[in-house]
Structures are given as C-alpha cells and as structure tokens.
C-alpha cells in the first residue's frame, strides 16, 4: 500500500465529494480511486466516507482525518518548495481567484511576467464578477477590484486605484444627444453593472452634491457584458477607466460629463491572501513579485493619477497603496 498516494486520493475525494470528479482532477480512473480509498479505510480500520448511489459524504472520523491530511499535504508541499527555493527557483501551483475586471486587463501580463521568471510555476485560475461569489479562503491568492473591501479576515494588500468614467458609444450619441449636465441622465437609457450603484449617481460641483436618480433599462452581473452592450449602442454606463482604456483610445466609446465630478468613483485593486504564520515559498515569491511590479509601474497622466497613500497600520489593510493605472 502506498499510504501517501492513498491520502492524496482521499483528500481529493473529500474536497470534491464525488468519486468521478476526484478521478478526473487527479488524472486516474474511477476504479483506482475506489480501490485506494477502500485500502486506506482497511488500513485504518475505520470508515472515512459514506457512499450511496446519489451522494458521497464524510463520516465524523473522515472529517477529522481530512483536516489532518490537508495539514500533512501542505507541509509536504512546503518541503518541496523549500528545496526548490534552495536551488533558487520556486515550484508548484497557485490557486488564483480574480475579478473579471482584473482578469481581463492586467492579470495575463502579471502571470506571464512571473512565469518567465519562475518557469516551474503553474496556475489554477477562477474568475468572478462579484466578490460574494467566491470564498477567498479556498484560494492561495485573490485579486479583487472593490469600491469598499468587505473581507478583513485575509491579509489585504492595496495595489492601485482608478476611477470610474461615464461612457457611451458614438451610435448611441447619434440617436440621443450627450447629456450636458448630470440631471439630464434621468432621460437616458442607463446600463448598470452589479458592482455599480443602481438607484442614483451623485455628482459634486461648487454648489454642492447633486443626486441623479437613474432608471436602468438593464442590470447586468458581468461588467464585460455591460461594456459590450454600451459599445453596441444600448445605453450609457459607468465603468472603470482602466477597463475601457482601449475603447476610449480607438473611439468605440466616449466619456460623458467630463466637467462634473462623479462621487464614489474610486476603485482599489486588492491582493488578498491568508495570513498564515509560515507562508509557502511559492506564495511569498508571487506576492513579493506582484507588489514590486506595481511599485515600479510608471505613473499615469496627471489627469488620471491617484496620489499614493502612506503605510497602513492595520494588518488586514496591510502595507501600502500604490498609485498608477490598472483597475
């Protein structure tokens, strides 16, 4: 019996609660998974998994054993990474979660640059539209683009900020003249992404703050779909400037109400990860690489630049906020 191999298979079954899915992820046959688990249970003299025709669940003992197996496998991975680090090169796989805004802009370049430096690394990427859709504790590292960070249980490294802009396509503006003042938005077709205010937008000028009630003709979960709908001429939307930078450059989108100050338009890109006492070598290498990459990014133009914020003292909001482009 290869006990370590059986433990790895059991841990995957416990994670998936599905024999076929565990076999698929491990690249082995269903029969190998079944046989290995039966051998492990026989070796331990206990039942770890309840099996029925419809579902798989862990026994109480199985739950306890799984927790210890996860700790053991993490320690083994750390040992492998330590040896790899000793020869100057991290190795392994990072589980990354990223907002769709970030995943479709800077993330591919970040991963490409890091893998060019650490060629033995691989990535398991999950993309989400809303932070509430993911449990960040299930990932090694998470990139979140938030107006206000809602999870403080992780170490949170602010990387950069950007601001929203109000945009429309030339086709839409040919049908509906561009609003000259914020109040005119009430008579326009508005598209709203799930992470943007949907009831009203606020603007500030020398006379104070003006609240404009908008009537969305469409509320869409995905910012990507919002952008495409705006390009198609469906209506007006507020989106991150970095997210629409290419479209503004090629003229397929135009900014509106540039003379008005949009309130609540700031977004921060956060790098989140677990604050374990002993961070895995590969994770530490990746975090250091990402932070240093944004520290060295050239500043944006004066119109878009966001001032740096000094070191934060609270651990959950962590060290520094770096200005520059990005989301």
Automatic annotation (TrEMBL):
Q: Which InterPro entries match?
A: LysR-type_TF_proteobact-type (IPR058163), LysR_HTH_N (IPR000847), LysR_subst-bd (IPR005119), WH-like_DNA-bd_sf (IPR036388), WH_DNA-bd_sf (IPR036390)
Q: Where are the transmembrane segments?
A: none
Q: Does the keyword Transcription apply?
A: yes
Which keywords has UniProt assigned to this entry? DNA-binding, Transcription, Transcription regulation
Could you tell me one molecular function GO term of this UniProt entry? DNA-binding transcription factor activity
A Pfam cross-reference name: LysR_substrate
Boundaries of every HTH lysR-type domain copy: 1-59
Region annotation (Disordered) ranges: 302-327
What GO biological process term is on the record, naming one? DNA-templated transcription
Top-rank taxon: Bacteria
Q: Which family does it belong to?
A: Belongs to the LysR transcriptional regulatory family.
Name of the protein in question: LysR family transcriptional regulator
Q: Which organism is it from?
A: Paraburkholderia panacisoli
């Amino acid at each position: 019996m290869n006990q370590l191999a059986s433990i790895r298979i059991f841990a995957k079954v416990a994670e998936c609660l599905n024999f076929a899915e565990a076999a698929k992820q491990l690249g082995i046959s269903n029969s190998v998974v079944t046989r290995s688990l039966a051998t492990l249970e026989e070796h331990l003299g206990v039942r770890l998994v309840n099996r029925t025709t419809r579902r798989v669940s862990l026994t109480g003992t199985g739950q306890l054993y799984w927790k210890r197996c996860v700790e053991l496998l993490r320690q083994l991975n750390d040992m492998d990474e330590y040896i790899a680090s000793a020869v100057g090169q991290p190795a392994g796989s990072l589980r990354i979660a990223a907002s769709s805004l970030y995943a479709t802009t800077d993330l591919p370049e970040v991963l490409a640059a890091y893998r060019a430096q650490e060629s033995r690394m691989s990535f398991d990427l999950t993309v989400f539209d809303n932070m509430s859709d993911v449990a960040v504790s299930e990932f090694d590292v998470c990139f979140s683009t938030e107006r206000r960070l809602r999870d403080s249980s992780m170490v949170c490294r602010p990387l950069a900020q950007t601001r929203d802009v109000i945009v429309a396509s030339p086709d839409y503006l040919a049908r509906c003249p561009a609003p000259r003042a914020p109040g005119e938005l009430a008579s326009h077709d508005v598209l709203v992404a799930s992470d943007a205010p949907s009831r009203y937008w606020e603007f500030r000028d020398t006379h104070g703050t003006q609240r404009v009630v908008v009537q969305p003709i469409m509320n869409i979960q995905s910012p990507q779909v919002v952008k495409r709908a705006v390009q198609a001429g469906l209506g007006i939307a507020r989106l991150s400037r970095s997210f629409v930078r290419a479209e503004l450059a090629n003229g397929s989108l135009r900014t509106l109400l540039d003379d008005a100050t949009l309130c609540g338009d700031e977004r921060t890109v956060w790098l989140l990860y677990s604050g374990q006492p002993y961070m895995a070598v590969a994770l530490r290498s990746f975090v250091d690489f990402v932070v240093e990459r944004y520290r060295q990014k050239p500043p944006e133009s004066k119109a878009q630049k966001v001032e740096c914020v000094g070191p934060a003292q609270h651990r959950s909001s962590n060290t520094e906020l770096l200005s520059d482009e990005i989301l």
